[in-house]
Amino acid sequence: MNSLWAVTLATLVKDIRLEWRSKDALNSMLFFSLLVVVIFMFSFDPLAEESRHIVGGLVWVAFLFASVVALNQTWARELRNQVLDAYRVSPAPANALFLAKAVGNFIFVSVLEALMTPLFVIFYNLHVLGPAWQLIPVGLLGTWALVVNGTFFAAMSLRTRNREIMLPLLLFPISIPAVIAMVAGTTAILTGENSAHFYIVLLLTYDVVFTTASLGLFGTILHAE
Amino acid sequence: MKRLFPILSVITAGLLAYALYQALVVAPTDALQGDVYRIIYYHVPSAWTAFLLFLINFVASIVYLFRRSQKADMVALVCAEVGVVFCTVVLVTGPIWARPVWGIWWAPGDIRLTSTLVLWLIYVSYLVLRRFSSSAQTQMLAAALAVFGALDMPLVYFSIWFFRTQHPQPVIGGGSMDPRMLHTLLISWAAFLCFAFLICWARYRLEVLQREVEQAHAMESLVGAGVTAKPSMPLTRGAK
């Protein structure tokens, strides 16, 4: 157990340091989601009242697409110099690697969301009518939902031809319930018309189920030869 | 076994013809919907068959994850392929039926429409994964994806729970369906099941042959390389 946390922490710190120095994933995600925001703004051009109803969808679609950009880079980085093969033959637990990657991606996507949310507020003249604090659990649980499956499927699509396109093809169908919960929950909070509790519970269930499944199957995926 | 195949084909053809006759001629016309409702004898049996095939795919994938059995993997592959075909039939006949009865092609908030669509999407992505993955690890990855898909389905169902559902509640066993209609429906389902089994069987045999051919090719190239590579190896190394 001790070694699991030690390896997780070591890999996580390494990934954060790499990202801090290169800023590859963060920069590309930021610019990508900025482009999505601007394109949506021109495509819809809503009034403040309407935008409250649609912006939940826009925000999460932008984050979903942007997170794919980061997720694709997670494992590709380990392919250079056969790092992943070295990891495979080392006695370190496979789940430590998975946890570190998932938490790392969670941090990167959260930073992106923290930077992009003010932009959405400005561009769409947002003013929250429901209990605003509930956006925090929806945001955190929703991000984890995207990232935990995304990290798993990115590891899976690493073994396929044209892996860059493979990740969204695998990730999006499975993510549909999470996306519904995120979008409907955010819209419920923004409009204040109904309660978001159901969606928060749904996201929590989704996170628990797929975190367990990913941890249970990651070893087999990593060592599949 | 091989002699059984043509016999089963004939039985299936007979059953399908009988089911069609029952559906178009014998079954009574619906009091509210008129003759349009007769599409139920294609729509519902296809849906049941598709769900059954996906269930078999899930079980076979679990078996593969534990036992690494090639047979389980082939069963999973075959069931996913045929299941996607039947699921496509459901998604095509559904709107055709919905348009005259509900007045719309598609009800976006409906729980069963949407969850069937998501199920279809998941299994299409499963087939895409099998197609694009390189040979050795495909089976493991596909089995893992099948498990993820199966875990996803209850969540899909609950996530649409809050929306008002437009699809009719299941009438089987509720006692509200005319017994002659139920009879026809069950005959149709039996015919569809036989048909699905027949296709799965043929596809399974094809898959077995394909894998044998692949293995033979691999063996041949190994043997060929073993004979020629040994003397030429130092030369090629030196040349590089």
What would you say this structure looks like, in words?
The complex is a heterodimer of chains A (225) and B (240). By secondary structure, chain A is mainly α. Chain A has one domain. Chain A is 84% helix and 0% strand. The mean pLDDT of chain A is 88. Chain B has one domain. The C terminus of chain B is likely disordered. The N and C termini of chain B lie far apart (55 Å). Chain B is mainly α. The chains are: A mainly alpha (225), B mainly alpha (240).
Supply Rg of chain B: 23 Å
Structural class of chain B: mainly alpha
The best one-word shape of chain B is globular
Proportion of strand residues of chain B: under 5%
Distance between the termini of chain A: 26 Å
**What would the average pLDDT of chain A be, to the nearest integer?**
88
The level of helicity of chain A is over 70%
Give the SSE order of chain A as H and E letters: HHHHHHHH
Q: What oligomeric assembly is this protein in? A: heterodimer
Describe the largest sheet of chain B: none
Count of strand segments of chain A: 0
**Biggest contact:** A-B, 31 and 28 residues
The value of Rg of chain A in angstroms is 18 Å
Largest sheet geometry of chain A: none
Distance between the termini of chain B: 55 Å
Q: What share of the residues of chain B lie within helices?
A: over 70%
Structural class of chain A: mainly alpha
